[in-house]
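Q: Given only this backbone (123 positions), what sequence would you predict?
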């Protein structure tokens, strides 16, 4: 489960390396799982000329991987090595144009097809 003040690795090439969860959206309780939308503050950025986000920006994001086990409806438990997310704009389109690492199947259930198309694999 992901709560407020949790640090994330950002998997897309928007220019951000690390973000911190500020708020979990559309949830009664303030913890999130894979596929939930959150509000993120950017804490570390990559040193490049063409970055799409700046340090201390506040953006929307979706959780794509967690260390905590996720139980699917068929009984399989899945966990990943890190907590990771992808940044989104206000129209729920990805900011970056490439995602590193696998995405979870729960992203496909949310029908974010633009994010799925730029990912290398879905697990």
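A: Predicted residues:
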């Amino acid at each position: 489960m992901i709560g407020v003040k949790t640090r994330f690795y950002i998997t897309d090439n928007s220019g951000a390396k690390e973000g911190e969860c500020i708020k979990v959206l559309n949830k009664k309780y303030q913890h999130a799982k894979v596929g939930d939308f959150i509000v993120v503050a950017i804490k570390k950025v990559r040193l490049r000329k063409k970055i799409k986000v700046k340090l201390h920006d506040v953006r929307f994001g979706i959780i794509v991987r967690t260390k905590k086990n996720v139980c699917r409806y068929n009984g399989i438990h899945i966990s990943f090595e890190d907590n990771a997310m992808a940044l989104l704009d206000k129209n729920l389109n990805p900011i970056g144009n490439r995602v590193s690492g696998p995405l979870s199947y729960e992203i496909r259930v949310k029908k974010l097809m633009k994010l799925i198309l730029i990912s290398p694999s879905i697990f």
